[in-house]
Amino acid sequence: MRDFSADHRWLSLNTATVRKQGDLLAIIEACARHNIRAIDPWRDQVSIVGVGRAAHAARDAGIALSGYCRGGMFTSDAARRVEVRDDNRRAVDEAHALGAPCIVLVVGGLPQYSRPGSAPSKNIAGARAQIEDAIAEMMEYAKTARVPLAIEPLHPAYAADRACVNTTRQALDICDRLDPGRTGVLGVALDVYHIWWDPDVLSQMKRAGKDRLMAFHVCDWLVPTTDILNDRGMMGDGVIDIRSLRRAVEQEGFDGYSEIEIFSNRWWSRPMDEVLKTCIERHRTVV
Ligand code: ZN
């Protein structure tokens, strides 16, 4: 297992962590100041400054990407299928322009929440089938751009509105069905917030292996959690045994960034430099 205690060269910052403190250019500048070598930007943050400027700024600062957030929200009613397909193809084009090593997929829940305006449905099995078909289609497009897709299983609390792929097993089942040859185009993004509770998680990490383990996200689970979306904890402030999970992915050969992704009203209200300093300190002592 890699020793993170001496430096933070394997720290990547998911830029949503400081999205309220500045735009993407300001975040890149702050990362450069703190010697953070990688980021995972969000599409809305990129679109505000423009893909070209974002790519330039990161390159000039010597900052790499650990992923691109996010593709997906595949579930919709029939009227919106083409819109969903085209939106995800644009995500692939942007990821390619930015040099992202993968697109993180948040696959969507029930259609009316994933793509507002869609006809309401309670058919979660149907939603899951639709997701698999849409990933299969997106994969073909992503292959030509050589941008791998990383399915992020989300905690079951998000099954209705964000993702009804809720376990690592479920995500890997999709990978095995759509990419049985393990060609490198499809894998998983594992976020400790979503997977820490899962009794199968260690055996599923083994099953995934290095070629399917495309991203590793860290934060912490606070008790009590006051907001299921925006009350993520700083590493060390909650109950997740982050180091054991990191050890398990590294045992399979994962050697990428440990990406900090914290959506938190608490941390969004702190100055950017304070948040980054705390991230670095916790990366070295807790992750
Ligand atoms: Zn994540």
Q: What does this molecule look like?
A:
There is one protein chain. The protein has 287 residues and is an alpha/beta fold. The protein has one domain: TIM Barrel (Alpha-Beta Barrel). Helices cover 44% and strands 13% of the residues. It has 12 helices and 9 strands. Helix 4 (81-98) links the parallel strand 4 and strand 5 (103-106). The site of zinc ion (ZN) has 4 residues, from loops.
Query: How helix-rich are the residues, as a percent range?
Result: 40-55%
Which strand order spans the largest sheet, edge to edge or round the barrel? Answer: 3-2-1-9-8-7-6-5-4
Supply the CATH class: Alpha Beta
The count of β-strands is: 9
- Helix/strand/pairing category: alpha/beta
Give the CATH topology: TIM Barrel
Total count of helical runs of at least 4 residues: 12
The radius of gyration computed from the alpha-carbon positions, rounded to a whole number of angstroms, is 18 Å
* CATH architectural designation: Alpha-Beta Barrel
User: End-to-end span in angstroms?
Assistant: 11 Å
- Quaternary structure annotation: single chain
Please give the largest β-sheet: 9 strands, parallel
Low-pLDDT stretches: none
Molecules bound to protein = zinc ion
Q: What is the N-to-C succession of helices and strands?
A: EHEHHEEHEHHEHEHHEHEHH
| Mean residue pLDDT | 98
Write a concise synopsis of the structure shown.
The chain has 287 residues and is of the alpha/beta class. The chain has helices spanning 24-33, 43-49, 51-61, 81-98, 111-114, 124-145, 168-178, 192-195, 201-212, 242-251, 265-268, 272-285, and strands spanning 11-14, 38-40, 64-65, 68-72, 103-106, 149-151, 186-191, 213-218, 258-260. The termini are close together.
